[in-house]
Design goal:
The chain is of the alpha/beta class. The chain is about 45% helix and about 10% strand. Strands 2-1-3-4 form a four-stranded parallel β-sheet, sandwiched between helices. α2 (about 35-50) crosses α6.
Length: about 140
């Protein structure tokens, strides 16, 4: 467990932790080449629209762009991966960044396939599950 995560779980609220009053909530999604990846991206967009956080660029972190990495380190991160490969979580892990909330689309009732014909329906199913988990963790 990182110090950042430990401080959140113990209720420590300082400006230099993920729980700090000024720490933004950033949301990243794997956006991979399957329905699960695209559903994760759509969930990120919907959470942004609902004000749950700001959609953020996982590619910028994966490309080791310092501005993206430092912003992610200073934020409370919500991570949405499409499948158990966990590319988004692994990309953040390279920099010691833990997710304050983590969602895996294939654990939300969606089977990973390379068929994009049901994305709206699958996004609605997975988004409902994410919102329920987010509201129960408050």
């Amino acid at each position: 467990m990182s110090d950042q995560q430990s401080n959140c779980e113990t209720g420590s609220r300082t400006s230099d932790t993920c729980c700090g009053a000024g720490a933004p909530t950033l949301i990243v999604a794997c956006s991979g080449g399957s329905n699960a990846g695209q559903v994760s991206n759509s969930i990120m967009v919907e959470l942004d629209k609902k004000g749950a956080g700001k959609a953020y660029c996982l590619a910028g972190i994966g490309a080791d762009l310092s501005g993206f990495v430092e912003s992610a380190k200073a934020a409370r991160m919500v991570v949405i991966d499409g499948c158990p490969t966990g590319c988004a979580r692994k990309a953040l892990g390279r920099y010691g960044i833990d997710a304050s909330q983590y969602f895996l689309v294939t654990e939300l009732g969606i089977t990973k396939v390379h068929d994009f014909s049901r994305l709206s329906e699958e996004t609605a199913i997975a988004l409902k599950a994410v919102l329920e988990k987010m509201s129960s963790s408050r």
